[in-house]
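Please fill in the sequence for the structure shown.

STRUCTURE ENCODING:
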């Protein structure tokens, strides 16, 4: 249950979202339970508008966060396999609407969900309203880490390795935010860019192996990269 103050704050977040995008209210299965969930009704339209290149306000929406990515569902399922998850603080990179981070919070973990998109953070705060006691939402640009000094034993990210041009800023970010002996779990749907990331991250000095998650939806399994520093 939300307190009156929490409900009022959530309503303010919802109104901010509704001024920018059309929303669909429903439920999603997260951490094995039905959880109230809000998503963008037509994320493809956001992408089309952003690609026009002449609407800076829309471009700021960073429309990729608005889609429902299977990789986040796979990471959600994978987190259920980690023993004693509730004993660790967790950082999510590129959290988007927050599904993976909220999954960790529903399993008892304390989570910091980050994204570079202001709209994504608003959506994430709204979706995380029922676990707000365990979720902190924070803006983070991987290339601007001067003010980010916290380190985490577990770092997660879903579908953030699709663009090889981002690897040179993602990898130093991973190094900076990870505690000694920590682990980074990254999910992706077996794209060729995932193969490229696996080779690239090993060349950057990381140990990397992978595990597959079958979502039982007739599509390719989700690949989870497990990355550690030697």
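FILLED IN BY: designer on duty
SEQUENCE:
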């Amino acid at each position: 249950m939300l307190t009156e103050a929490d409900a009022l704050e959530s309503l303010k977040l919802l109104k901010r979202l509704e001024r920018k995008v059309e929303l669909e209210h429903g439920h999603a299965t997260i951490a094995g339970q039905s959880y109230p969930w809000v998503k963008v009704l037509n994320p493809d339209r956001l992408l089309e508008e952003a690609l026009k290149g002449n609407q800076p306000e829309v471009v700021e929406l960073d429309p990729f966060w608005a889609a429902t990515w299977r990789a986040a569902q796979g990471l959600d399922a994978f987190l259920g396999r980690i023993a004693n998850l509730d004993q660790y603080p967790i950082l999510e990179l590129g959290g988007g609407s927050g599904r993976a981070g909220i999954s960790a919070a529903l399993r008892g973990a304390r989570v910091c969900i980050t994204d570079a998109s202001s709209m994504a953070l608003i959506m994430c705060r709204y979706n995380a309203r029922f676990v707000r006691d365990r979720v902190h939402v924070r803006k983070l640009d991987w290339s601007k880490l001067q003010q980010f000094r916290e380190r985490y034993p577990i770092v997660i990210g879903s579908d953030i390795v699709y663009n090889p041009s981002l690897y040179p800023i993602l990898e130093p970010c991973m190094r900076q935010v990870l505690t000694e002996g920590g682990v980074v779990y990254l999910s992706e749907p077996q794209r060729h860019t995932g193969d490229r990331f696996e080779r690239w991250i090993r060349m950057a000095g990381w140990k990397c192996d992978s595990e597959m998650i079958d979502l039982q939806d007739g599509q390719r399994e989700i690949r989870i990269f497990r990355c550690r520093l030697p």
